[in-house]
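Input chain follows. Return structure tokens only.
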Amino acid sequence: QVQLVESGGGLVQAGGSLRLSCAASGSIISFNVMGWYRQAPGKQRELVAAIAKGGTTNYADSVKGRFTISRDIAKNTVYLQMNSLKPDDTAVYYCNARRQEWRISDIWGQGTQVTVSS
């Protein structure tokens, strides 16, 4: 079973940048979609960015123009480049891998904390 490990979280000042990594133990191209979600205290988990097998990306409105999702297929790794960070970006960020065939199957990482100070 594929496992996902997030890294790159930490404390950063507002306006700063951070790059998150999601390393998979298997080929990321085997998934229909990979994405980043986040969950802040007292809030629901929300989709931040996603990249489909063919390379198409989509983003939450709140991060458009600031965040970029990318991948390195050879390294089995998905990245989330976060620029112009705001305090509202503070959350635990989770990597997700989805395979949709006859049913939807999701794999989640353990999460990495991102804290943006004001």
